[in-house]
């Protein structure tokens, strides 16, 4: 990427924002304000990289200071289905049958890696503002 006069390089942005691990509530609020400001427009490549870094720092701080425990994949799926009024039949293409969807939702069957990827893709494509990954629906296989 060749920076134009309106675009800053990643190094310029790092100097401007000076991101570092967040240790205080004041630093946390400053990072939140920066991220919220970046969400209002289209970001250049360097801005996107800084945005992602700031989000990671915020998430790390929140995990240590506002931890609510790890969500189970089934709870995540149930919550999304409820929030967006998704019927079991809407997920048949991912799981193959309503029976399997019911087994997953009831916790009788784990989500496979490929199903987890498909679920993330399904929700991200159908409901704007989401940025789910396969890890939201299951563990990565080694």
Automatic annotation (TrEMBL):
InterPro entries: Antitox_HigA. GO terms for biological process: regulation of DNA-templated transcription. It comes from the Bacteria. One of its GO terms (molecular function) is core promoter sequence-specific DNA binding. This is Transcription regulator containing HTH domain-like protein.
């Amino acid at each position: 990427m060749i920076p134009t006069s309106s675009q800053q390089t990643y190094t310029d942005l790092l100097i401007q924002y000076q991101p570092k691990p967040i240790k205080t509530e004041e630093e946390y609020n400053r990072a939140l304000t920066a991220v919220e400001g970046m969400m209002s427009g289209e970001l250049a490549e360097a801005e996107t990289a800084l945005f992602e870094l700031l989000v990671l720092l915020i998430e790390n701080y929140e995990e240590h200071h506002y931890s609510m425990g790890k969500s189970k994949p089934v709870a995540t799926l149930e919550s999304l289905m409820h929030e967006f009024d998704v019927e079991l039949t809407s997920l048949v293409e991912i799981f193959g049958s309503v029976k399997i969807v019911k087994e997953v939702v009831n916790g009788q069957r784990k989500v496979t890696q490929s199903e987890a990827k498909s679920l993330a893709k399904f929700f991200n494509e159908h409901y704007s503002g989401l940025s789910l990954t396969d890890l939201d629906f299951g563990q990565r296989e080694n």
